Structures are given as C-alpha cells and as structure tokens.
C-alpha cells in the first residue's frame, strides 16, 4: 500500500516560477526577484554544506516535474551521459558565468552613461526580442532596468533550455547540469574536504 508523502509549503514553489515570469513580462523591474534563486542556494550550501535548496526549494525544478510527470509533457527517457559529465557541467557553468558577466558589463555601461537602455530580451544569448511594454520609466535609474532586462533574459533562456530537455528526456534533466547546482555541489565538496581535514587535525 502506497503512503502519500506529506506536502510542505515549499513543495508549491513551482507556482513562484510562473508568477516570476508573469510579473517580469509586465514590469521588467520584477526580474530582480530572480536574484533570490541565485543567492539562496549558495547560502544554503555554504552554511549547511548540502544541496537542500536544490532538492526541496527550487521552483524551476519543481515546475519541470509538474509539467513532465504530472502533466505528462516529458518522454521520460534517459538523457545522454555527456549532459551530466563533469566536463560539460563545468563548461556550461563557465559559459553561463561569462554571459552573466557580459550582462553585468552592459548594465555598467548604462550606469556610467557610456551605453543606453535596451528594452529587449535576448533569448539563447543570440536572438534579441523587443520587450518595450515591460518598462516605461520609474523612480529608479536606467541601469536598474537594464539589469532587469539582462537577468530576465538569462532566467527565461535557462528555463527554455530546461523545458526542451524536459520534453526530450527525463523531467528534471536540467538539474544535472544546472549552473547553480554545479556551484552548490562544488561548495559542498569544499566544505566536506575542509571538515575531513579538521577531523584529521583533532
């Protein structure tokens, strides 16, 4: 007889992923809220030395599960091994951080006055899509909006990649090479090694 797993409040964070993109669609300044998904996993890994956030609180991973498993949008086929290989994971992480750095640099150009605000979303780091309706000025300087456009592009692109691999393979295939997952895993390994050295000293 199967026992139903007790639901916790964080089991419904997949709704947050939908709300996030909906808010950003109408006002790009809400894109800044996505920084929560960048900062919290690193904090959890640094303090707890584990991937609890990734396993329990990642709204994006939950969304892939809901769409793939519950709504049967996934083929649920094993993904190619190279997708979860160390070389690909760290290579994708470097590429991801490079794109993030480029986004920050574009924000700096607007901040310094050397560049102008671009009201566009860049999908897959290549295709520029007009997004003018999402920002009509605010009390904040233009560089704040520029960061929002860039960060929303990053979040939307990574989610689309996750949806593609979800459909083609298993539900949470994205999690096997997610940059945040790779970084938190690295932090956990460092903390584990540090703990072993401290125990050896004792």
Give a written overview of the molecule.
The protein is mainly alpha-helical and 202 residues long. α1 (14-26) crosses α4 (59-70) and α2 packs parallel to α7 (179-201). It has seven helices and two strands; from the N terminus they run αααααββαα. It has a two-stranded antiparallel sheet with strand order 1-2. Helix content is 60%, strand content 4%.
Structural class: mainly alpha
What is Rg? 19 Å
Share of residues in helices: 55-70%
Strand/helix succession: HHHHHEEHH
This entry's quaternary arrangement is: single chain
User: How far apart, in Å, are the first and last alpha carbons?
Assistant: 48 Å
Q: How many strands, which pairing sense, and closed or not: the largest β-sheet?
A: 2 strands, antiparallel
Side-by-side strand order of the widest sheet: 1-2
Number of strands: 2
What ranges have pLDDT less than 50 throughout 5 or more consecutive residues?
none
What is this structure's SSE topology?
Blueprint: H1 14-26, H2 35-48, H3 52-57, H4 59-70, H5 86-112, E1 120-123, E2 127-130, H6 142-168, H7 179-201
Antiparallel strand pairs: 1-2
Helix pairs in contact: 1-4, 2-7, 4-6, 5-6, 5-7
Short synopsis of the structure:
The chain has helices at residues 14-26, 35-48, 52-57, 59-70, 86-112, 142-168, 179-201; strands at residues 120-123, 127-130. The chain has 202 residues and is mostly helical. It has a two-stranded antiparallel sheet.
